[in-house]
Write a structure and sequence with these properties.
- By secondary structure, the chain is α+β, with helices and mostly antiparallel strands.
- The protein is 24% helix and 40% strand.
- α1 packs antiparallel against α2.
Length: 134
């Protein structure tokens, strides 16, 4: 799990590039297929979608580190595809989910402090290591 808080959790895993072979298009070549898992008291849902570009994915770990350091990260981190958004809230992070699914909230608040944000950033960097910009 990227974040885990007493019954609420968000997991993200980079599965692959959307296109196995680079085609020479800096935009299309860099879409990442992400598997997400959302766990709330209301239920569990997974999704697998090409929803982040390589540079957007790296912005997430930078945002997490900035939020951990002094709260100086922008209040909201969003991306071209609206599948995921991240927002600072007083006790942690709110993760917005465009495709939450029936019976699940469209945003999940996870209480996480600076150490947890840094762990999440490190874990996300490890996920991204095999997927450089092409």
């Amino acid at each position: 799990m990227l974040f885990d808080d007493q019954g609420c959790g968000i997991g993200l895993k980079v599965m692959r590039y959307e296109f196995a072979a680079a085609r020479g298009d800096a935009y299309d070549d860099n879409w990442l297929v992400v598997r997400g898992e959302v766990v709330t008291p209301e239920g569990r849902r997974t999704f697998t979608e090409p929803c982040l570009l390589t540079d957007e994915a790296r912005r997430l770990s930078a945002w997490l580190r900035e939020a951990a350091a002094d709260g100086g990260a922008p209040a909201v981190l969003d991306f071209i595809e609206p599948t995921l958004t991240f927002r600072r809230v007083p006790e942690g992070v709110r993760v917005g989910l465009a495709h939450a699914g029936p019976g699940l909230p469209d945003a999940v608040d996870v209480r996480v402090g600076p150490a947890g944000l840094l762990r999440a950033a490190d874990a996300w960097d490890a996920e991204l290591a095999p997927f450089p910009a092409r």
